[in-house]
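Table S7 (text form). Paired inputs.
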Amino acid sequence: MTWSINDKQVVVTGGTSGIGRATATELARQGAHVTITSRSEADAAQAAAVISSETGGHVNGEALDLSSLESVRDFAARYRDSHDGLDVLINNAGTMSKTRRTTEEGHEWTLAVNHLGPFLLTNLVTDLLLASSPSRVITVSSENHRGAKNGLDFDDLQMTKGYNSSKSYAASKLANILFTVELDRRLASQGITARALHPGVVATNFGKNAESPRWIGIAMTLLKPVLATPAKGAATSVHLATAQTDEIESGIYWSNQKPKQPSPPATDTDAAARLWDLSTRLVGLPT
């Protein structure tokens, strides 16, 4: 079956700026019906209107706070009420917290936003993905996953001891790939293709909000002249969303629009299954 993004239903989390916005813009330009999300409903609506005007495409903005499991459930319910299927889910939004802080449900912030929120969202719309099969789940990870050299610490996944912002971020990005490995194992036979990617080091607003480490914001500002543009950072997400199925079969993790070998801990299928089971319990899904 030939794959075309035209008329496909696409969700891009964190689609109001940076890589997410560039991804949404290009997919809308190619004819996809795109829903972008932001913690602010007003920001999402405004960005959607601008992207629609720029591309002539169909773009909708919705509120979604990935740090809140309740917000994830609310968004999923709204989306399910208004859509019969979902062709491409792009888990793009991410963060890094400078200090250990917890969400309203008590989860460590970086883990919650980067992994638990996307994990719950994907599970809540899986039936829509199946209804649109073949479909795709694309998750933005990072080469920083290699910083978690010893894999995930399942005895202290929430980093209650010895919190470090870089360690937490690396662990969450490793979790993105392990989630993708297990999702693909579970659902590839039913037509859902799961892929993770590294977007490159991109000039975005990442690290410039109050919750992020100050050094990240400073580094992003100083390095901006040599960093990739958001459009270039979005290129691999766009490729995975638009390429023919046989063109993306060769790897679970991608960079520069090509498959790339992730770290050994990222291909640990036992760890992937263990993370799935633990995440299921943490977000309150049926086991």
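Next pair, protein 2 of 2.
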Amino acid sequence: MPLVTSKLMLEDARRGKYGVAAFNIENMEMVQTVLATAAELQAPVMIQTTPGTIKYAGVEMLAAMVRTAAKSCPVPVALHLDHGESFDLAVQTLRAGYTSIMIDGSKLPFAENIAVSRRVVEMSHAVGIPVEAELGKVGGKEDGLEVSDKSASFTDPAEAKEFVFKTGIDSLAVAIGTAHGFYKGEPKLDFERLAEIRKIVDIILVLHGASGVPDDMVRKAITLGVSKVNFATELRAALTRGVREALVDQSIIDPKKFMVSGKKAVQEIVKQKIILCGSANKAIA
């Protein structure tokens, strides 16, 4: 089916008290695997690209690839800009056909984050596209994004309320202790903070940095109001692991052959995360 915006699928998730799994992709094989697995499990799904992936492959190439794959996919698919770093990149992705936009001004002072987020909201809403923003700083390193442990900061509930009111965003990425990339130890999530934010902010909440977070913590975050859960690092690691395992056989030189192994490894992760988020069979009318 044609690409859809993230608005309805995330509102359905909030009402149904489950999460939509959002997967960062790097190439055609990851797109194919995510959509085939979502179709198998009858789950709505979001495909995401970071600025680094866009720089590598080109926004038009990525949008065309996902749009083409989605046409033959029987479940709702949204194409989302993850951690959009500027107003100009938001413009580029909207023009290319992205159906969900994130503007990440979390490194900016509070007032400047509000200003750039509001500007992206005004532009995106004019063409019916929802906007995600971030308040607080999710730590760790992923793609070109890096926030040191020292610079990471949690989302302040009172600021979140003001931020949502002044920007008009559709969803808010909250910083409650998760981090991008793999964790060195077990993460410690501030669930009390998440519950407080949920009480005073009446929009979709998003959990970034979920790769490596224990399943019980992801489930608890969803029960406390998270409706979108982002996964990136585990998919990259799975693809690489699968390809490496295939290339032990040095006679294999055809990318179509060794990428099959990579796709199988990614499929396992995608299936696990969709089931974890509770979105399997949620695409059935």
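Confidence is low (pLDDT under 50) at residues 147-151.
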